[in-house]
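ingest -> validate -> predict -> emit
validate: passed (alphabet ok, no gaps, 131 aa)
predict: started
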Amino acid sequence: MTVRVTRLSDLHGGDELTLTRAASVQFFRPLPFRLIRVLPLATYDGWCWLDGYELDLAGEAVERRRLFVQYQGVIKREKSSTPGTRTKGNGTAACRPEPLIERDSAMTTAVRQLPAAAQHRRRCAGSGEAA
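emit:
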């Protein structure tokens, strides 16, 4: 479902928008956008500054942008999903993948067992502080 924005008060943080050529000539193709906030800057009547993220086809944030647009060229769309989650074909939230880096518990234990002087040297090595 899409709704054309007619008032600035129609825009709220978290809204997923489509910015069309009617919003600004810079959008020669519609731009999917997730709004963080409308910036409280003085502008011309009918224009506003939007702070948010450009979205890719999957609805994931690609780049943070601040855009100067005519709000009547903004189309509000239904949110694809909760930010940070993806949905499976049946509409249930998919699990996030595990991080690629695994922590070596033996290494962590070995670092904790270093003598106090060695721990101090290790902490101060990058700070330029004398050991």
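Confidence is low (pLDDT under 50) at residues 85-112.
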